[in-house]
Amino acid sequence: MFVLKANVLLLSIRLCSVRNACLRRRFGSVISERGQSSSGPAQYSRSADDAVVYVHWPYCKKRCTYCNFNKYISASVDHARMRRCLVQETATLLQQSGVKQVNSVFFGGGTPSLALPQTLASVLEVISQHALLPADAEVTLEANPSSTETEKLREFKAAGINRLSLGVQAFNPLDLQLLGRDHSVEDSLRALQEGRTLFPGRVSVDLIFGRPRQTVESWQGELKQALSVCDDHVSLYQLTLERGTALFRQVEKKQQTVPDPDTMAELYACARETLRNAGLRQYEVSNFARNGAESSHNLSYWRGKQYIGVGPGAHGRFASRGTGQTVREARIQTLEPQQWMGQVERLGHATVKRTALSQLDILEEILMLGLRTTEGLTDERWQQFSGGTSLHDIFGTSEAVQGFINAGLLEFSHSVLKVTPSGLAVVDSLLPDLLLATQDFYGGRCDGDFTGLHQTSGRAE
After folding, report:
1. Is 181 exposed, middle or buried (0-12, 13-18, 19+ CB in 10 A)?
2. Beta strands at 281-284 and 287-289: parallel, antiparallel or unpaired
3. Mean pLDDT value across residues 213-235
4. Taking all residues of the chain, what is their mean pLDDT, rounded to a whole number?
5. What is the pLDDT confidence band of residue 322, given thresholds at 50, 70 and 90?
6. Which of 2, 141, 193, 434 registers the highest number of CB atoms within 10 A of its CB?
7. Half-sphere exposure (CA, 13 Å, Cβ side) for 163?
8. What is the mean pLDDT of residues 100-111?
9. What whole-number distance in Å separates Cα of residue 64 and Cα of residue 210?
10. Average pLDDT over every residue of 255-272
């Protein structure tokens, strides 16, 4: 009952696999560094005066078997030095950006709940010294539900945290062990109870599906257990086998097997239906909420806002207006913590790479991120970056777009372009044709000349 045309949709994915691979080589991840396009950098004639801030804490107790994030296992962390450097880099990047208001802050990692609450408080204080941080701004902490970290939640609240993202990942003891997690199901239940007491209505649960040996029936049981104890937000992530991880090696050696694509589609469809029936509205590919509990921070990414990345390996997208620049740049900070701290102490920040983004770069990102959401991409937001070119100008005569509409995967009006519920499940298979249509409009393909671009006059919303 949960297949929901899964076989037809998976066929669409497979038919697009070669094109997707080509586009990934061209575009990469929208949250990873990209090369300079041949088009000129996009200029902004109006002040981009607000942004969100992401702060990366790179340390973990142990490395999970599936994880290839930028994280480090250290027996002794110099908390005082890390705090000083996070505060210094936050101040420097805020000064460079020239933003007047920070709408939200997200402490991610790594395992930021291993940081001292004083460190988070100091970062929030320096943000308030350089920009307006509204009293009701969303301030999220990623946390593992281990007993040690749960005991610190009250201190984190006192430090300024008002939203919690708990990395539960599974309600199955064997799968927690397989994933290399350092908490138990009982730890998760205690953390959820404490979190909901301290942050009512503002606790998110992260779950991973597509785990080895996972069935639709077992997954549905876990979802029902999650719904019996969770708050108003759930994030679902499909397990991805990353080269170099322990789980990748286990699967490669046939020691573990993961669900086939058909089963993976059924698992996702099962989760969507189960969560919808519990009143959690899907507002993005991986995120579900009720009672207004959507993450405003993540919505800022998907809506194309500026974001400032602080900490080892953090990424950012903002214009350095504080230094007189008007071009939005993709930035990445030095990865390794010791090197990062040394550079911050010498220079005030550890930005290791800055890439000016062309208008086409920005429009591609806006398109890819906006279509991940159920609200879609509005023409008003698009024109803030396109310099007056409408969505209809680009996609109104596209045969591919009309085909997706006829297939029930896409909806398009003069005011908004968005995927349907069926289309949301296969949005990655729709994007190649939409990206190519955008490139065609601006006069070329991947390596073409885009010098004839309109200049944008809008700011990040």
Report:
1. buried
2. antiparallel
3. 96
4. 87
5. confident
6. 141
7. 23
8. 96
9. 16
10. 96
Measured CA to CA, the distance from residue 56 to residue 332 in angstroms comes to 12
Pairing relation of β-strands 101-109 and 72-73? unpaired
pLDDT band, residue 267 (cuts 50/70/90): very high
**For residues 450 and 38, is the Cβ–Cβ distance under 8 A?**
yes
Whole-number Å distance between alpha carbons of 336 and 350: 10
| CA pair distance 428, 433, nearest whole angstrom | 10
CB distance 113 to 141 below 8 Å: yes
Q: How far apart are CA 279 and CA 288, in angstroms?
A: 9
Mean pLDDT within 295-323: 96
Distance CA 197, CA 382 (A): 40
414 band by pLDDT with thresholds 50, 70 and 90: confident
Structure tokens at 362: 């920005």
C-beta of residue 113 within 8 angstroms of C-beta of residue 149: yes
CA angle 201, 207, 209 (to 5 degrees): 150
Rounded CA gap, 54 and 127, in Å? 12
| pLDDT at residue 449 tops 90 | no
Strand-pair partners of 125:
none
Tokens of 45: 């004639």
User: What letter represents residue 191's amino acid?
Assistant: A
State the Cα–Cα distance between residues 289 and 235, nearest whole angstrom.
9
Bridging pattern class, strands 287-289 and 233-238: antiparallel
CB 371 within 8 A of CB 30: no
Q: Answer for the pair 294, 323: CB distance below 8 angstroms, yes or no.
A: no
* Token duo for residue 73: 């296992």
pLDDT reading at 354 higher than 60: yes
**Peptide bond connecting 167 to the previous residue in cis, omega within 30 degrees of 0:** no
Q: Is the pTM of this model over 0.90?
A: no
